[in-house]
Amino acid sequence: MFRTKLKISERYNLITHQKPIFSIGSCFAEAMGSKLENCKFEVLYNPFGTIFSPLAIFKIFKLIFNQEKFWEEGFVENPDKIWFHYDFHSDVKNLGLEGLKKTIETRINTSQKLFNNAEVIIITLGTAWVYRHLASNQYVANCHKVHQNQFEKILLSVDEICKDYSLIAPFLERKKIILTVSPVRHIKDTLPLNAVSKSVLRLACHYLQEKYKNIIYFPAYEIVNDDLRDYRFYAEDMLHVTPQAENYIWEKFMESFMNDSTLSVVSQWNNIQKKLNHKPYNPASSSHQKFLEQLLKDLEKMQGYIDLKNEIKLVKEQIIEGVL
User: What is the pLDDT of residues 263-274, one digit of tens each?
Assistant: First the structure.
């Protein structure tokens, strides 16, 4: 067999439909968050948009914990009169400065509410390369297309990452942390320097897992690079992974963090989802109405495990009285 397949050595019963999940980090965090949401888990992912740098991710936590306030000098207005902030992705924007401040405060409040109830936190690190805003001496999460002469590009060290994590660690000690490195490549840094960046992140994850007993490392990076290990699993941009690769990683993720009962609920829901997406030739036909009646029973049976009120309402609206 010409392949080194990654085996899940230990299984953790961390993720269930009864426990909220908070996920933050690179676009890979968004991909996994979306899959969790699609499987009816209560999850909040990337409330401030995609964040790649460890220090920028940790700064988000400091905002949630009220350790810090967002810095006033970080607001920037682009030529189109749209306001952004250096600490957040360009998804976090507004046509007015005060409107943006309110948007940020709302997202902080939303994050605080879910975080307080969450037992599992997923952190996905994207790159160790960061940009320092020269005028303020602050590291930024996003340059928002401001001229590069206003920034200095710096490679974080393993010690810097671990030291900054130690500032938020006391607030996370009662949570289970799933830490991972994004397999998405950052070739703007060049392939050799992308490799350096990923090496720094991977080593930081190793030391953090060794130091903090509530941290579990999930090998998403290794699954792509050492298990799948093929350009077939990269998208057209040759940077992001394909849906097929995402699904393979998702299967490994479920195998790692869900027990048999949760996996059974996910499997049943996936089957029901396919039925919900079914497009009939004749919605009023007797056969389709029988199909809907059975689908309604299946949904009501699962309602005790996951919230399906909207789906039940949708199916009831399609059932025509007197056809059967």
Answer: 999 999 999 999
User: Token match 């991977």: residue?
Assistant: 202
Region label for 131, one of left (φ > 0), alpha (ψ between -120 and 50) or beta (otherwise): beta
Phi, psi angles (nearest 5°) of residue 90: -70, -10
Neighbours of 242 (CB within 10 A): 15
pTM exceeds 0.70, yes or no:
yes
- The gap from C-alpha 12 to its chain's centroid, in whole angstroms, comes to 19
Strands 43-45 and 83-85: unpaired
Please state the φ and ψ torsions of residue 82, each to the nearest 5 degrees: -105, 135
E-assigned strand segments in 75-137: 75-77, 83-85, 120-125, 129-133
Question: Are 182 and 220 in contact, with CB atoms under 8 Å apart?
Answer: yes
* All structural domains of the chain: 21-258 (3.40.50.1110), 269-318 (no CATH)
What DSSP string runs through 167-234? HHHHHHTTSEEEEEE-----GGG-HHHHHHHHHHHHHHHHHHHHH-TTEEE--HHHIIIIII-SGGGB
pLDDT of residue 323: 65
The amino acid at residue 272 is I
Q: Is the pLDDT of residue 1 over 60?
A: no
Pairwise CA distance, residues 301 & 296, whole Å: 9
The burial of 241, by beta-carbon neighbours within 10 Å (0-12 exposed, 13-18 middle, 19 or more buried), is given as buried
